[in-house]
Amino acid sequence: MKVSWTAERPDATDADTVAIGVFEGDETPAGAPAQVGELLASGEARRSFKSLALTHADGKRRLIVGLGAREDFTPERARVAAAVARERAREISTKVLCWQAPTADGDVVAALVQGTALADYSFDSHKSQALDTPKGASTLEGTGKPDAEVKPKRLEGLVLTGDGDLGAIVGEARILSEAVNEARDLQNRPANDLTPTALAEHARKLGSEIEHLSVEVEEREGIVARSMGAFAAVAQGTEQEPALITLRYEPPGASGPLLGFVGKAVTFDSGGISLKPGAKMAEMKFDMSGGAAVISALAAIARMGLAVRIVAVVGATENLPSGRSVKPGDIVTASNGRTIEVNNTDAEGRLVLADCLCHAVGLGAEQIVDLATLTGAVIIALGSTYAGLISSDDALAARVTQAGERSGEIVWRLPLHEEYDELIKGKYGDLDNAPEGRKAGTITGAAFLSNFVGDTPWAHLDIAGSAWDLGRAYAPKGASGYGVRLLVDLARSYATGA
Question: Domain segments of the chain: what residues?
Answer without folding.
Answer: 2-125+155-165, 176-496
